[in-house]
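Please, structure for the following, as tokens.
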Amino acid sequence: QVHLEESGGGLVQAGDSLRLSCAISGGTFYNYAMGWFRQGPGKERELVGAVGRRVDVTWYEDSVKGRFTISRDDAKNTVYLQMTTLRPDDTAVYYCAAGRAGPWNIPRSVYEYTFWGQGTQVTVSS
């Protein structure tokens, strides 16, 4: 059974940085594209960044481009989301997810991700 566990969330001020980590166990990490989703209060879960099976294949939602960076370390079975210049509207529960994909593909829909972490809260105060 594949298990994902996020860490690194917290309460920060606008302009601060945070790095989220997601450790995957119980599966073959390199077979999965990895995504970071977030869900704010009263909002739908949205994909903010994803990395394909190839580390150089990435995708970002427009509002986080230039501020968030996703990376994966296959040796550590871990994916990261480095977040900088955080804003209050980044406040959400952040989830990592794993989905099978071709080496050049980035799954974009929640339905394309099979395994999910429990989520970690990120709160950005103004």
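The two ends are 40 Å apart (CA to CA). The chain is about 0% helix and 50% strand.
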